[in-house]
Structures are given as structure tokens and as C-alpha cells.
Write a structure and sequence with these properties.
The complex is a heterodimer of chains A (561) and B (42). Chain A is built from 21 helices and two strands. Chain A is mainly alpha-helical. Chain A folds into two domains: 469 residues, Sodium/glucose cotransporter (Up-down Bundle); 68 residues. Chain A has a two-stranded antiparallel sheet with strand order 1-2. In chain A, a hairpin with a 2-residue loop joins strand 1 and strand 2. Chain A is globular, with a radius of gyration of 25 Å. In chain B, 74% of the residues lie in helices and 0% in strands. Chain B is mostly helical and 42 residues long. Classes of the chains: A mainly alpha (561), B mainly alpha (42). Chains A and B meet through helix 5, helix 9 and helix 12 of A and helix 2 of B.
Chain lengths: 561, 42
């Protein structure tokens, strides 16, 4: 990176930390520290919800996803607006009425202590590990692309935000997320503009879309139905997006404390509802625009030399392996193909474009095969957008876009640290230890926030050392638990006659079933995409708990007779 | 409608139900728009 990039990066990050510290004055009790004294207006609730959901990988991965697989990924979010409506009708009024700090407190009031403790524990386990991955994933990408030391990148990615998160709690998190999202959207807009600006003369936005369309990148709506019927293993289509996405969003926004903690900070039920509904209105268009940047980058590379593989560090790895001579030959051959292509591509017909895409796919698959053989990472989707940024954007803008990656990570991680700390103190420390004064609870909350921050940075380091296997395992972990946790909450809200024991037993049985389905799916015995695990988990707990309650009631009646 | 909902009236509209319909209606329009884009550029 150039000096102007470094200056912009450092000034932006320091500015956000200073702003967070400036806004961090709050009352020294749990209400102030975890809920910002329940005084946050709806638009900050909205930005908090969006900032918590959008991690760094969202902005790195989504354009790459559109580049390789097209825009159909946007369908993943179709269930979200529907989930926002259900949350506003049921979850939000119930949570506000009980004046709770964590979503899991509600479960003790509705069921019993063991259900609350189990659910909160599952949240801490899954979120603690996945937040470490949220730090690790962008750190690995930045350190690979820019040659930064991974340990220091992890510490900067996960460590600096500890300063304002520990000091200011939920209030500092809310105010910094506001500033972070403004910078992030500004940065992404400028990046999108620059892609179009760098297209050749006579090629504009509309032509770029046509080019993307010809290559199948504007496959925004897909049904998942082919000659053999509906594909249950197809990740992103209209039906899995609306049904699976609905259950996933309902579970994430309704039962994950990192999100519940954002709308509990609102000053009233109305402000919470407005924040959530606005999220339902803007999330899909926002994701569409981020994916569109990926299609524009694809169009850009039709007129400019495209790297044979976007992750240069993996090519360097191959250059030191037994494939070094073959790699030189392949790169020469690929460069010649690219030279011919970029000189004749002005207005390719669909068959010409298909031929080019097919030839390039051949080179890429060879590289991937070699990488697999030497134990490298054969997926470069997350590197596509940032590689374009570092190769083609002017000085200064590169620094801004790197800052965007940091800020996106911070917004998400800061909210999670706050929620991990609130669950630890409210669901465990307060519940199982002797009572403390508000001042002591406040100080202990800071200690727990710091502890979780250090824990997540340590997990990030561990994830790097263990490689992709752990990252995949932790990503699967979330989809395995979300459905069951949602099922518990759905029973709590909608099945009033079902008791604690029935829901507890059902949760354990269905959890085992979901894990079994995952094992069968991974071994190729069944075909089921991970989004459907949420449906199975939630519906399974509701139906089984109802059945157990019915049987138990009948047995009790017979016993009495 | 319970007492709490009566106390907390939504902005712009008389009932929250109108907000919910707006959100779902916008989703339907977006899906139709995306369908049109997919067909147009395929």
C-alpha cells in the first residue's frame, strides 16, 4: 500500500475509535452498559441491526460470489422481510414487556432455568467460536493480499475495537456502527462507480449488465427446479431463500443475543419495530447492490487481463512446489489467451463468450487441482473484489476500501462481544452467584467484555493455524443450532400448553437429528442444503414437543383415573 | 388490539398492520423486478 493509503486507513480507524470513546459516556449499571439506557432511536436500531449482520466477509465475499456464481445469492435474503414482520408482531412486544437483558431470560419465565441455561450456553459456544472466525477470515485475506503478518492483522482486526467496546458498552457500539456504516456504504458506492468509470470508452453501465447477463451472472431469480424436479441440495433459489431464509432470519434476529441486544436498546416497542421493519425494506436492495458490484467487476475483467487465480499467495505456494515448471507454462499460455481475448472482446456474441469462459475455466480447474494436491486453498472467491481494488483503484481509495473491511468487521464483532458479555453476566453470573451492587456488576461486565475479546482473537489465531477445516466446522455449527433454538422460542410464544420438560426433551432429540442429517449430507448419502436444517430444527421441536406434551397429558390422566 | 399496542401507535399509518403489508408488498415487487431483470438480461 502507498503512503496516502496508509494515512487514510489509519485516520479512518482512529477516527472511529475516538468517536466511540467520545460517545461512550453512560450510566454505570447494566441498563447503561448493555442497553444504552433503552434510549436509542429507530434509525440507530436499524444501523445497529445492519452493522451487526454485515461482517467483513459480507463485503469481500458477496461481489466475488456474484463474479463466480451470479447474483442468485440475493435470494438467500428473501425470507428476511417476512421474519421482520413476525418478530414485530410476537417477539418484540414480549421482550419489551418483560424488560429483559437477554432473550434467554424470557425462556426461564416461560419454561424453567434448565431451558434458559442450555439455550444461553449454546449461544455462547457457537457465537464465541464464530466471532473468532469473523476476525480470522478477513485477516487471512488481508494478510495474503498485502503481505501483512497474520498475528498482527488478527490483533488489529479484533483487538482495537475492544478499546471502545469495553469502555462504552452498547452505546459506544451503537454510535460507532452508525459512523461505520456511513463510511462502508460510501466506500462501496465509490468502488462501484470506479468500476464503471474504468470500463472502456463506449461501454457503460447498461452494456456491462448485458455482458454479465450473457455470461449468466444476472441469474437473480432461480427456482432450483431442473429436469429431475426440485433440487434440495441447491443452496440459493427462490424457495430455499423464502422458506429456509425465513427460518434462518427469524432465528438469527429473534433468538441470537447479538441482534436481540440491538433492538432492546430502543426507547420503545415502536422504535424497535420501526428499526426492524426498515431493515426488512432495505436489506434485500442493499445486498442486490453489493452483488451488482461483483457483476460490474466481471464486466471490467472482460476488457482487462484477469488473473488466472485471484489469491496470489496460493500461486506463490505453487511456484515453490513440484508444479513450478508446469505453472510457468500454464501462466504463459493463459497470458496469451487473455491478450487475444481482451483485444477482440469489444462485442462478443453469446457463443464466443461461452467459448472464452470455457477455456478460462480449464486453466482455473488445473490450478485448483494442483492446489488441492499440495494442500493449498482452491477457493479464491473472497479475493476477487479486493484484488481488483488493490490492482486498479487509485491511491487513497485502496486505503479507504481496506478501512471498509476493518469497519465492517468491527461493527459485527463489537455487538457480539457486548452480547457475549451480557449473557455471561445476566444468564450465568447473576443467576448462579451472590448478588452484586450495580457498580460492581458494571465493572464485571467490562471484565467479561475484555475476556471475550481476547478469547475471540485467540480463536482467530487458532483458526489460522488449523486451516480451513475448523472454519468450515464453525460455519456449520451455526446452522446446526439455530433451528432448534428457534423451535424452543416458537413453542414458548405459540404453543402455550407445552411445558418445559416436553420442549427440553424435544430440543435434545431434534438437535441429534439435525446433526445426523448433517453427517449424512456430508457423506453424500442424502442431498440437503444447510438452509433446510433451520426448517427441520424449528419445525421438529414444535411438532415433537407438542406430541410429547399430548402423550404426557394422556398418561397423567390415565394415571389419575 | 391490546392496551400496549393502542399506546404505541405507529408513525405515518394508523395501524402496524399497514406497515407489515408495506414490507411484504415491497418484497413481492422486488422479486417481480428481479424476475424481469433476470429474463431481460438472460
Amino acid at each position: 500500500m502507498s503512503r496516502p493509503d496508509w494515512i487514510i486507513l489509519v485516520l479512518t480507524l482512529l477516527g472511529v475509535i475516538a468517536y466511540g470513546l467520545y460517545k461512550s459516556r453512560t450510566s454505570r449499571d447494566l441498563d447503561g452498559y448493555f442497553l444504552a439506557n433503552r434510549m436509542v432511536p429507530w434509525y440507530m436500531v436499524l444501523l445497529g441491526i445492519m452493522g451487526t449482520q454485515a461482517s467483513a466477509v459480507t463485503f469481500l465475499s458477496a461481489p466475488g460470489q456474484a463474479y463466480t456464481d451470479g447474483m442468485r445469492f440475493v435470494q438467500y435474503y428473501f425470507g428476511l422481510p417476512l421474519a421482520m414482520v413476525v418478530l414485530c408482531i410476537t417477539f418484540v412486544p414480549a421482550f419489551h414487556k418483560l424488560k429483559i437483558y437477554t432473550a434467554y431470560e424470557f425462556l426461564e419465565q416461560r419454561f424453567d432455568l434448565k431451558t434458559r441455561t442450555l439455550t444461553s450456553f449454546l449461544f455462547l459456544l457457537q457465537r464465541g467460536l464464530s466471532t473468532g472466525i469473523s476476525i480470522s477470515a478477513p485477516s487471512i485475506i488481508l494478510s495474503s493480499l498485502l503481505g501483512w503478518d497474520i498475528v498482527w492483522t488478527n490483533i488489529f482486526m479484533g483487538g482495537l475495537l475492544i478499546i471502545y467496546t469495553v469502555t462504552g458498552g452498547a452505546k459506544a457500539v451503537a454510535y460507532t456502527q452508525q459512523l461505520q456504516l456511513i463510511i462502508i456504504f460510501g466506500g462501496m458506492f465509490v468502488a462501484g462507480y470506479m468500476v464503471v468509470h474504468r470500463l472502456p470508452e463506449g461501454v457503460g453501465f447498461s452494456e456491462a449488465l448485458h455482458l454479465g447477463g450473457k455470461a449468466g451472472k444476472l441469474n437473480i431469480i432461480t427456482t432450483g427446479i431442473d429436469g429431475k424436479g426440485f433440487s434440495w441440495n441447491d443452496r440459493y433459489n427462490l424457495f430455499s431463500g423464502i422458506i429456509g431464509g425465513f427460518f434462518l432470519a427469524l432465528s438469527y434476529f429473534g433468538t441470537d443475543q447479538s441482534q436481540v441486544g440491538r433492538y432492546l436498546t430502543a426507547r420503545s416497542v415502536s422504535e424497535s419495530r420501526l428499526g426492524l421493519l426498515m431493515n426488512g425494506l432495505v436489506k434485500v436492495p442493499m445486498q442486490f447492490l453489493i452483488l451488482l458490484v461483483g457483476v460490474l467487476v466481471f464486466a471490467f475483467y472482460q476488457f482487462n487481463p484477469e488473473p488466472v487465480f485471484f489469491n496470489q499467495s496460493q500461486l506463490d505456494k505453487l511456484a515453490k512446489s513440484k508444479y513450478k515448471d508446469s505453472l510457468i507454462v500454464l501462466e504463459r499460455s493463459y497470458a496469451e489467451t487473455e491478450r487475444l481475448r481482451t483485444s477482440t472482446v469489444a462485442a462478443p456474441t453469446a457463443p464466443q463468450l461461452a467459448e472464452i469462459v470455457s477455456a478460462k475455466a480449464g486453466y482455473r480447474s488445473t490450478i485448483k487441482r494442483w492446489l488441492n494436491d499440495v494442500g493449498g486453498d482452491d477457493n479464491d472467491t473472497n479475493y476477487i473484489f479486493l484484488r481488483f481494488v488493490t490492482d486498479y483503484l487509485p491511491k487513497g481509495l485502496v486505503g479507504l476500501l481496506i478501512a471498509v473491511i476493518f469497519l465492517a468487521a468491527w461493527g459485527s464483532i463489537a455487538a457480539t462481544l457486548n452480547s457475549l458479555s451480557s449473557c455471561t453476566i445476566v444468564d450465568f453470573h447473576r443467576r448462579f452467584s451472590r448478588p452484586l451492587s450495580p457498580e460492581k456488576e458494571f465493572r464485571l461486565s467490562r471484565v467479561y467484555t475484555f475476556f471475550w475479546g481476547v478469547f475471540c482473537v485467540a480463536v482467530a489465531q487458532l483458526a489460522y493455524n488449523l486451516g480451513n477445516s475448523l472454519i468450515e466446522a464453525v460455519n456449520v455449527l451455526g446452522s446446526l443450532f439455530y433451528g432448534v433454538i428457534l423451535g424452543i422460542f416458537l413453542v414458548a410464544f405459540y404453543r402455550k400448553k407445552v411445558g418445559a420438560t416436553a420442549v427440553f426433551i424435544s430440543a435434545i432429540i431434534i438437535e441429534a437429528l439435525v446433526i445426523l442429517l448433517n453427517v449424512l449430507s456430508r457423506k453424500g448419502i442424502i442431498s440437503l442444503s444447510f438452509l433446510w436444517f433451520n426448517v427441520v430444527g424449528a419445525a421438529g421441536v414444535v411438532l415433537l414437543s407438542e406430541a410429547i406434551q399430548l402423550i404426557s397429558s394422556k398418561l397423567n390422566t390415565r394415571h389419575k383415573d | 388490539m391490546n392496551t400496549e399496542e393502542q399506546e404505541e401507535r405507529p408513525p405515518l399509518f394508523k395501524k402496524w398492520r399497514t406497515w407489515y403489508r408495506l414490507v411484504i408488498g415491497c418484497l413481492v415487487l422486488l422479486i417481480l423486478f428481479f424476475y424481469f431483470l433476470t429474463k431481460h438480461f438472460s
